[in-house]
Amino acid sequence: MSENIISLNHVSFTYSESKVPAVQDVSFNVKKGEWFTILGHNGSGKSTITRLINGLLWSDENDADSIIVDGDPLNEQNLWKIRDKVGIVFQNPDNQFVGATVADDVAFGLENRGVPREQMLSIVDKAIQEVGMSDYKTAEPSNLSGGQKQRVAIAGILAVKPKILILDEATSMLDPRGHDEIISLVKKMKDKNDLTVISITHDINEIMLADHVLILNDGKAIAQGTPKDVFKNEKLIDSIGLEEPFIFKLIKKLIKAGIEIPENVDSQEKLVEILC
Ligand code: ADP
């Protein structure tokens, strides 16, 4: 897990309608196979970064090799090659559907790439099965629940075999059950398909899934590292009004109450293991 699959080097972006940069001199590396979380308040620049990574937004402010995806600099020549490698699940599932049925929708990306019909049908079947939606192949996407819609969106992305899956607040419109369903599905798909996951969120507790966290504030990267490292800097976290994840708060309370908690305990599972 050491090779960088995405590198941003001093990337900035200002929307033409705006005078203030949405993203300012941001640098980070995402390692192959990791779960990388970008956390920040609304308006901190998270979505802009997502769109810069797959070339939906482009700026001449940056050097030619300021965004590297899977070894290639993001430029006009590599744009489609890179887009093929980066799948994005957006916040509102209703805005992502193009097919009249679940199967049509999942087939869309493959049709666009000219995959022969027989092969396409088999890939579509498999992708729908992988996300647990086989009973809904002929259903209209608009009649599905929020969680089911996101499953279909994920199937459509998996069908074209990306290397990177970006969740752009993909669970923020779901109820807690839908949220948990999608997160555990993505975890499973990540391991099965050797994916790198970038999760954009303002859900503080979701960062506990991350190998690496980047905190954005007003378009600037103000902290990065493991969740534990990032939240060690209480002053910084306080200064931008972020709350600590529940598990870290709990560990601090337990230590204060005289319960010994080893340094390496940084997850609910590990905490339960040592307490029970
Ligand atoms: P986040 O995803 O963290 O909520 P965004 O990347 O959407 O943040 O927005 C970053 C900044 O850029 C905000 O100040 C926002 O108002 C501004 N912004 C976003 N989209 C546009 C746009 N299309 N035109 C002008 N400004 C925009």
Automatic annotation (TrEMBL):
Membrane topology: Peripheral membrane protein
Cross-referenced SUPFAM superfamilies: P-loop containing nucleoside triphosphate hydrolases (SSF52540)
Residues covered by the ABC transporter domain: 6-243
Swiss-Prot/TrEMBL keywords: ATP-binding, Cell membrane, Hydrolase, Membrane, Nucleotide-binding, Translocase, Transport
A cellular component annotation (GO) from this entry: ATP-binding cassette (ABC) transporter complex
Main location: membrane
Subcellular localization(s) per the UniProt record: Cell membrane
EC number: 3.6.3.-
Source superkingdom: Bacteria
Gene3D superfamilies: P-loop containing nucleotide triphosphate hydrolases
A molecular-function term among this protein's GO annotations: ATP binding
Transmembrane segments: none
InterPro entries assigned to the protein according to its UniProt record, in alphabetical order: AAA+_ATPase (IPR003593), ABC_transporter-like_ATP-bd (IPR003439), ABC_transporter-like_CS (IPR017871), ABC_transpr_CbiO/EcfA_su (IPR015856), ECF_ABC_transporter_ATP-bd (IPR050095), EcfA_1 (IPR030947), P-loop_NTPase (IPR027417)
Family: Belongs to the ABC transporter superfamily.
Protein name: ABC transporter, ATP-binding protein
